[in-house]
Amino acid sequence: MSLLDRRVRGFRLVDLIAAALLVALILGVYLAKTMAGRERTEIASVERQIGEEKARIRLLQAEVAHLEEPARLEHLSVAYLGLAPVSIKRDVDAAGLGDIARTAMITGKTPGDGMPVAPHQPLSFDPTRPPPARAPETPAQ
Question: Rounded to whole angstroms, how far apart are CA atoms 15 and 30?
Fold first, then answer.
C-alpha cells in the first residue's frame, strides 16, 4: 500500500492534503483581498489629502499674490510708514553721487534738505584741502 492510497477515517490521505491546501489558499486569497482593500482605502485617503493640500496651496498663492500687489504695498507704506515714491528731483546718475557726497561734506546738508541736485555738473572741490574756516556765530539777542 502506497502513501497515496492510505486512508484516514475513510478519506484518502491525498484528498485530505488537497483539502488542507485548498483551505490555506482560500484563507490566503481572503487575507490578500482584505489587505488590498485597506491599502486602497489608505490610498484614497492620501489622494484626498493631496487634493486638499493642493487647494490650500492655490489659496495661499492667491493670498501671497494679493499681499504682494504693488498698489497695496504703496498704500500701506504711505499710510503706516510715511514713505512715498521718490520724486524726480532726487534722480541722479552714478557720476553725480560723488558730487552729492562732496557737497554734503562741505555744507553738512544733503540734497533732500533743500539743496538743488546738479547731477551732471562736477563741483570744484579738492578733498585734499581742508574745508574753509567758518565765521563764528554770534549769539542772538
Answer: 22
Q: What's CA 6's distance to the chain center, in Å? A: 77
Least Cα distance to 33 among 25, 22, 45, 23 occurs for 25
pLDDT for 21-42, tens place per residue? 999 999 999 999 999 999 999 9
127: nearest Cα among 102, 98, 94, 108? 102
Note the pTM of the prediction, 2 decimals.
0.45
Task: Dig out the grid coordinates for 53 from the structure.
Answer: 493640500
DSSP 79-130: III---PPPGGG---HHHHHHHHHHHHHHS--GGGTPPP-TTS-----TTSP
Phi and psi angles of residue 12, each rounded to the nearest 5 degrees, phi first: -70, 150
**pLDDT at 116 (0 to 100):** 54
Dihedral (Cα; 91, 93, 99, 102), 10-degree rounding: 80
User: Can you read off the three cell numbers belonging to residue 36?
Assistant: 488590498
The confidence score (pLDDT) of residue 48 equals 97
Residue for grid cell 560723488: 98
Residue in the structure block whose three cell numbers are 490555506: 24
